[in-house]
Design goal:
about 90 residues, alpha+beta, 2 helices
Length: about 90
């Protein structure tokens, strides 16, 4: 099971493999109670394992738990929100 963390010092959510390797990240900017997502990247060699989806889901769940809203400037996050209606109320 991959581990997703909020690396607030780097303004990005990160996903790590079971072995502890950094597999990807999603950059953001925090503006008050809004989190603006800019880009989501999965490193070569880790693509095709649904890690991008797991990363975005984990980030959105964390944001919802904090009572924040999302501004999806990242095309991947925007597409994810459009396909996963359980996060419908999360968009700013």
């Amino acid at each position: 099971m991959p581990r997703i963390t909020d690396n607030s010092a780097a303004s990005r959510y990160e996903i790590f493999t079971d072995e502890g390797a950094l597999a990807g990240f999603s950059t953001y900017t925090r503006r008050g109670d809004h989190v603006v997502f800019w880009t989501t990247e999965i490193s070569a060699g880790f693509e095709g394992h649904n890690l991008g989806g797991a990363l975005v889901r984990g980030a959105l769940e964390d944001i919802r738990a904090r009572g924040l809203k999302v501004v999806p400037r990242c095309p991947y996050v925007l597409e994810y929100l459009e396909r996963h209606l359980e996060f419908d109320g999360l968009r700013a």
